[in-house]
Amino acid sequence: MRRNRLRELSLEVTVGTFMFVALLSLCVFTIILSRENVFRKAYPFEVIFDDVIGLRDGDNVVIRGMTIGKVKAMVLQDDGVRVVSALRRPVRLKKDYKIEVVISSVLGGRYLQISEGAAGAEDLPAGEIVRGQPPNDIMALVSGVAADLKDITGKINAGQGTLGKLVNDEALYNDARAVVGELKMAIKDRGLINNLETSLANLNEITDKINRGEGTLGLLISDESLYLEAKQLIGDIRATVDDMRETSPIVTFSSIFFGAF
Predict the structure, then answer these.
(1) Residue 259: its pLDDT value, please?
(2) Is 49 buried (19+), middle (13-18) or exposed (0-12) by CB count in 10 A?
(3) What is the pLDDT of residue 257?
(4) 91 Cβ contact list (under 8 Å, min separation 6)
(5) Residues sharing a CB contact under 8 Å with residue 163, sequence separation 6 or more, in sequence order
(6) 3-state secondary structure 18-50
(7) Is-contact 93 116, C-beta < 8 A?
(8) Residue 260 pLDDT grade (very low, low, confident, very high; cuts 50, 70, 90)
(9) For residue 73, what pLDDT is reported?
(10) Most distant pair of Cα atoms in the chain: their distance
């Protein structure tokens, strides 16, 4: 009887130990998967928003693109929604700080983004209430764009503006159609095309003659002797001018001397 009692007690201790180890392992794995360290010091951070547009407990808190904490609680107040976060490091806000709820994707999901402000700006006084930026609701933006598009299409249908006239004015269509018809007739008659082909043929013939050295322009371009003669002529003219400069004082003196008699 006593032996059976000890066996039952040993079995109960074994089962209890197994359950304790299993629960402890579950807690450890939960902490690892959630990436939270219960032994790490947390720094509370509170901010008041007019509207959190779907922010939830457990969403990330981000500074300069890095996750530094989680949203822990949200409390509805008379002046807005107070968001309480737990951060892994303290945050020192400047007077030009900016805190907003950011939509992480078009499929949903949000996070709290903190911009501490410029490094050279003045620190925010201690005890001052921190307020977040008004939300940018993506659905409101889409609705506004849709309303603008509806207004634009309405004006086009009413024939207002340049585009509206192009779409609705039948006279413009008729004019464009007439121009296209005239172009077709010109192409069909080939008069314009024949003139253009003749002009291009004449221009081609002229350039061929110039390349062969025919005519005055062809000789000027192709005959190297003309270039050498022109160069020699310029040299002779320059030498003559230099001689005249040298002899001009003597001529001037002679004319004055003989003029006195």
Answers:
(1) 47
(2) buried
(3) 42
(4) 43, 45, 63, 114, 116
(5) 156
(6) HHHHHHHHHHHHHHHHHCCCCCCCCEEEEEEEC
(7) yes
(8) very low
(9) 93
(10) 174
Tokens coding 91: 């945050």
Beta bridge partners of residue 158, listed in sequence order: none
pLDDT tens digits, 54-70: 899 999 999 998 999 99
Helices 191-212 and 215-222: crossing angle, nearest 10°?
40
- Distance between start and end Cα atoms, the chain: 174
> How many Cα atoms are found within 13 Å in the side-chain-facing hemisphere of 59?
21
Per-domain boundaries in the chain = 1-34, 43-136, 140-168
Residue 69 — φ and ψ, nearest 5°?
175, -175
**Predicted model pTM:** 0.43
Structure tokens at 98: 């900016």
Residue-by-residue DSSP string for the chain: -HHHHHHHHHHHHHHHHHHHHHHHHHHHHHHHHHT--TTS--EEEEEEES--TT--TT-EEEETTEEEEEEEEEEEETTEEEEEEEESS----BTT-EEEEEE--TT--EEEEEE---TTSPBPPTTPPPBPPPP--HHHHHHHHHHHHHHHHHHHHTT-HHHHHHHH-HHHHHHHHHHHHHHHHHHHH-HHHHHHHHHHHHHHHHHHHHHHT-HHHHHHHH-HHHHHHHHHHHHHHHHHHHHHHHHHHHHHHHHHHHHT-
Question: Residues 58-74, buried b or exposed e (16+ Cβ, 10 A)?
Answer: ebbbbbeeeebbbbeeb
The yes-or-no verdict on residue 194 having pLDDT over 90 is no
How far is it, in rounded angstroms, from Cα 28 to Cα 36? 10
